[in-house]
User: Which sequence fits this backbone?
């Protein structure tokens, strides 16, 4: 079946450090891929998405590239801020139905 | 600017009690979803409704029922709560078209069953 695997957290970084959160997936066909972010006490918000191979999603300095050959969608940011501290979820939608399959989430803590 | 609104935000139930979680969206979305979030497991789909009048099971439907009351509202009912249903519940909605499947989430309901 379809699944998403994210790197284990928590990830602790100093401000202005480079961030990578790994995400790999298993799916039939050509799923759409998403990164959602959950700030403390809030619901999930869409951070970025990519709908086909080699697409790059980007938002707020975050980027992720849809790599079909490695079935990956790693999240990167060149310089993190304290305000980026949150839980990040990788997700896929295999049938463009809006039904999402999530990874387990990765907690990011950025220290000043 | 409400988006997806869930009530209540917090609830404590005793084993065997029943309750209904309410969800409403004001974005005229066709599709609505209920997820549960458990530590180390991400979010898992309980039920969804592709359009008004239809509902279908997701990955973890046992112990739950849903009602799509109208286009705006999608409720989740626990008939006889169990400690295993202690979780954070999120409602979400999306336009439901293949061109636009972005999901918008409510702020969640933290449910504890004792």
Assistant:
């Amino acid at each position: 079946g379809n699944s998403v695997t994210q790197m284990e957290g928590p990830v602790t970084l100093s401000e202005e450090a480079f961030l990578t959160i790994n995400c790999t997936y298993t799916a039939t066909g050509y799923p759409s891929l998403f990164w959602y972010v959950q700030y403390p006490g809030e619901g999930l918000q869409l951070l970025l998405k990519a709908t086909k191979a080699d697409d790059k999603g980007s938002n707020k300095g975050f980027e992720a590239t849809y790599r079909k050959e490695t079935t990956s969608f790693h999240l990167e940011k060149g310089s993190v801020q304290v305000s980026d501290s949150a839980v990040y979820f990788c997700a896929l939608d295999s049938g463009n139905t809006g039904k999402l399959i999530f990874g387990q989430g990765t907690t990011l803590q950025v220290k000043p | 600017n409400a988006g997806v609104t869930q009530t209540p935000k917090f609830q404590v139930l005793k084993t065997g009690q029943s309750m209904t979680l309410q969800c409403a969206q004001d974005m005229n979305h066709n599709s609505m979803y209920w997820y549960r979030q458990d530590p180390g497991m991400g979010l898992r789909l309980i039920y969804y409704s592709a359009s008004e009048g239809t509902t279908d099971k997701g990955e973890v439907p046992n112990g739950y029922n849903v009602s799509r009351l109208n286009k705006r509202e999608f409720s989740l009912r626990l008939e006889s709560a169990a400690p295993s249903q202690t979780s954070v519940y999120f409602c979400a909605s999306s336009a439901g078209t293949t061109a636009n499947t972005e999901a918008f989430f409510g702020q969640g309901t933290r449910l504890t069953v004792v």
Observations:
- Chain A touches chain B at residues 4, 32, 36, 41-46, 49, 89, 93, 96-105 (CB under 8 Å).
- Chain A has a mean pLDDT of 93.
